[in-house]
Amino acid sequence: MTSPVLYQRRCPSLRTCQPWWASDNSFTGQIPDFLGSLTNMTQLRLQGNSFQGPIPRSLSNLIKLTSLRIGDIVNGSSSMAFVGNMTSLGELVLRNSKISDTLASVDFSKFVNLTLLDLSFNNITGQMPQSIFDLPMLSYLFLGNNSLSGSLPATKSPLLA
């Protein structure tokens, strides 16, 4: 366990706390809107709780995030548009987050650092954009249990096995 003194040096106030992990608890209710004001945050993990949707649009302010993990949302429905400017992401996990959208709503070609993309267990519809398969660093792609259609792109990034 981290000593209180050491923790206070790393996280002297909630506004400067990094990373922000609250996974695998029994939290309920809405994801707090104030998280969108913590604009220096680089990691946010909220999966494994019972937060209610929708995911707050204010999270779109977190453009310095390198890792975003939100999952196990109950009720509500969210768009993926809030991640559109989070182009520093290396990990994007929105598994079971009540996303109802198309993959075309996000310009994935801007996410050149993305190594992990997990959008499984949502209500994502439409076709697979080639831009996801062209991401140079993408190694892990999970899109199962959605309503995607059409054919898969003909080419893929070498890291995507």
SSE layout:
Blueprint: H1 4-10, E1 20-21, E2 28-30, E3 43-45, E4 50-52, E5 67-69, E6 91-93, E7 100-102, E8 116-118, E9 123-126, H2 130-133, E10 140-142, E11 147-148
| Major sheet summary line | 6 strands, parallel
Residue share in β-strands? 15-25%
Overall number of structural domains: 1
Assign the CATH architecture.
Alpha-Beta Horseshoe
Walkthrough of the structure:
With 161 residues, the chain is mainly beta. It has a single domain, classed as Leucine-rich repeat, LRR (right-handed beta-alpha superhelix) (Alpha-Beta Horseshoe). The protein has a six-stranded parallel beta sheet, with no helix packed on it. The longest helix has 7 residues. The relative contact order is 0.12. The N terminus is likely disordered. Pfam families: LRR_1 (PF00560), LRR_8 (PF13855). This is LRR receptor-like serine/threonine-protein kinase. One of its GO terms (cellular component) is plasma membrane.
Would you summarize the structure shown here?
The protein is mostly beta strands and 161 residues long. The protein contains two helices and eleven strands, in the order αβββββββββαββ.
Could you list some keywords that capture this structure?
161 residues, Leucine-rich repeat, LRR (right-handed beta-alpha superhelix), 11 strands, 20% strand, globular, disordered N terminus
